[in-house]
Every structure is written in C-alpha cells, then in structure tokens.
Design brief:
Helices cover 34% and strands 43% of the residues. It is of the alpha+beta class. The protein has a 6-stranded mixed β-sheet with strand order 2-1-6-5-4-3, sandwiched between helices. A hairpin with a 5-residue loop joins strand 4 (82-93) and strand 5 (99-111). It is globular and about 60 Å long. The termini are far apart.
C-alpha cells in the first residue's frame, strides 16, 4: 500500500531535519520548484530553487551553517496530493551558538509521491531580529520622528 501524502511529508520532514540530505533528496521530484519567502541576504540557501540539484545544495548549505535543535509539527492537513504543515523549528547558528526559532508554514504538492512544488513562509522580521540578536522594533521606534 502506498504511503499517504501526509505520511510522505512527515517522513520528508524527519529526513530533512535529521540532516540526512540523501534521504531528504529522495523525496524531491527532479523538477521541484521551491520558494521560501525569507531574506536571502541572511539565508542564502533559501529563496527560489529549481530542480533537485539546487535543493540538495541548499540543504547542504543550511546544514553547514545551522544544526537542528528540534522541530515540532503544530498542524498538518492533506487533501489528495496537497499537504500543508505548520511547524516550529529551532536551529543553532554554528557561528555564534545562538538558538533561532522559526515558525514556518509549508505548502507541498506531490506528484507520484515526490515533492514537485514547495512553498515556505516564515516570519522574516522575527527571524532577522533573532539572527542579529537585537530588537529592531525598538530601534525603529527610537529613530522615528
């Protein structure tokens, strides 16, 4: 019996966040279309990626800069080949040992059990504050006339 779309994505997330690039890559369609709406200046492995090779390169780059502390799935819904996942991911920045907490919305479309489209949304402002280690809201309000 074939795995459900929900099971496929949960298995993918386990592989991805375990740092198992080869196992995660097995879930990608050769023509995967990925977009993460995040500041690529701070996260160059995110942004838009086309094809399995770019995704593998991005996963490897992410693993080089961060180590996964943990993740938890808060919500998952599947409808046929479409799956939506809301999760919390905590990473350790290997450069400064800081823990960064992401709240992520993921939207997947599968084709023959492989991820063909993948859209990812994060609270970019919050993540930038965490990466910089400072409260940008206060800084902005102090500089406002």
């Amino acid at each position: 019996m074939a795995a459900s779309s929900r099971e496929v994505i949960l298995d993918y997330l386990d592989a991805c966040y375990a740092g198992d690039v080869d196992r995660a890559a097995a879930f990608y369609d050769d023509d995967i279309d990925f977009i993460c709406y995040a500041p690529v200046e701070l996260f160059p492995t995110l942004g838009q990626k086309k094809g399995k090779a770019e995704m593998i390169f991005a996963l490897t780059g992410l693993r080089d800069r961060f180590s996964v502390v943990d993740y938890s799935v808060d919500f998952i819904a599947a409808d046929g080949d479409r799956v939506a996942v809301q999760l919390v991911l905590r990473l350790r920045d290997t450069g400064n040992d800081r823990i960064i907490r992401f709240e992520i919305g993921n939207f997947f479309t599968l084709r023959q059990g492989r991820i063909v489209t993948y859209r990812q949304f994060i609270d970019s402002f919050d993540v930038v504050q965490q990466v910089l280690g400072r409260d940008l809201v206060s800084a902005i309000l102090k500089s406002a006339p």
